[in-house]
Design a protein that fits this description.
alpha/beta, 4 helices, about 35% helix, globular, redox-active center, electron transport, disulfide bond, Thioredoxin_domain, Thioredoxin
Length: about 120
């Protein structure tokens, strides 16, 4: 998956801008920790794009290439890809490991957001 394929709704974050783009946001932020070599990461990317468009104003979605940004991946103990971490007020509140169908992923996110 190239950067060109990432939609405008799903912005790329790095070790350098993670705090500003994720931890300091008012809205909850779902971060997709992914890697170029990961087939399930490519499978979930279009699903995340759809969710980002559908849930505009409810939460943000960001992508972080774990291979290119090892400091953040290590800090949040990301060992498998894809790993999705939902942050609220700068705090991780839910971790989802592995690709999911859209319906199941939305159900998990909605449950976490309603807690």
């Amino acid at each position: 998956m190239s950067t060109e394929q990432i939609t405008a709704e799903v912005a790329v974050v790095t070790d350098e801008n993670f705090a500003r783009e994720v931890l300091e946001q008012e809205l909850p932020v779902l971060v997709d920790f992914w890697a170029e070599w990961c087939p399930p990461c490519r499978m979930i990317a279009p699903v995340l794009g759809e969710i980002a468009r559908e849930k505009t104003g409810e939460f943000l979605i960001r992508k972080l290439d774990a291979d290119e940004n090892p400091l953040t991946a290590r800090e949040y103990k990301v060992l498998s890809m894809p790993t999705l971490i939902l942050f609220r007020n700068g705090v991780p509140v839910r971790t989802i490991v592995g690709a999911r169908p859209k319906v199941r992923l939305l159900a998990e996110l909605n449950a976490a957001l309603s807690e």
